[in-house]
Design goal:
mainly alpha, disordered N terminus
Length: 222
């Protein structure tokens, strides 16, 4: 099913190669896995009294949310660069076809990476405001990620799924990120073609941030 194609990328509508499928798939999966780190950080700061002390000093809840999110924007950016480098540079050394970035629309790629990061961090912050213990953080976050990955075409490409599963996959935010990246990397789509996927991710991320902000005040209650 995974038929090798030319390095410039196959024509629209064809299936990706193993590298073309797996590099963006695991890039999206890695971005969403910040949920474990963020959730554990929230639990540690609550148990250590850091959240209560910051609130007592008058630091607005919104500032605390943003301060915790920004470092993970950088983390996700580094993850994206490293994953693309693996596909472009390391895979050919291992005897596989490399991922080609020739001819892609760079603003569209940056848009998709930013939207995916926003969705991942928004989801992570929302989940972090719901868990209360390290056990919950280390269990619920990875479980949600694995479910979204299994349903969203990260572990198994959607084109080999039955029709009903393909429709279900469209409900997973990871699928939105994957399909948007495939649109850019595989089909050389521009901003207009990537925008529908980026918009879904952005709305998901903003809703997660909004809900997280409303729940954050509960973190500092005794």
């Amino acid at each position: 099913l995974l038929v090798p194609t030319a390095s410039i990328g196959p024509a629209p509508g064809t299936h990706p190669t193993a590298v073309q499928q797996n590099v963006p798939a695991w890039l999206v999966f890695g971005m969403f896995f910040v949920v474990t780190a963020i959730s554990s950080l929230f639990v540690q700061e609550q148990q250590g009294g850091t959240l209560a002390r910051l609130a007592a000093m008058g630091v607005p809840d919104g500032y605390q949310i943003v301060a915790k999110a920004l470092p993970y924007v950088a983390v996700n950016g580094i993850q994206a660069v490293l994953m693309l480098a693996v596909g472009c540079l390391l895979m050919p050394l291992l005897g596989s076809e490399g991922l080609s970035l020739a001819g892609i629309h760079w603003p569209a790629l940056l848009l998709m990476l930013a939207a995916t990061s926003l969705a991942a961090i928004g989801f992570a912050l929302l989940l972090a405001c719901l868990v209360r213990t390290h056990a919950q953080a280390n269990t619920l976050g990875p479980l949600c990620n694995l479910l979204m990955a299994a349903l969203g075409g990260i572990m198994v490409p959607t084109f080999v799924m039955p029709g009903a599963m393909q429709q279900l996959a469209r409900l997973s935010p990871m699928n939105w990120g994957l399909e948007g990246l495939l649109t850019v990397l595989l089909r050389h789509g521009d901003v207009a073609e990537a925008a529908p996927w980026a918009l879904r991710l952005a709305v998901f991320g903003i809703l997660g941030l909004a809900l997280a902000s409303r729940l954050f005040s509960r973190r500092i209650t005794p």
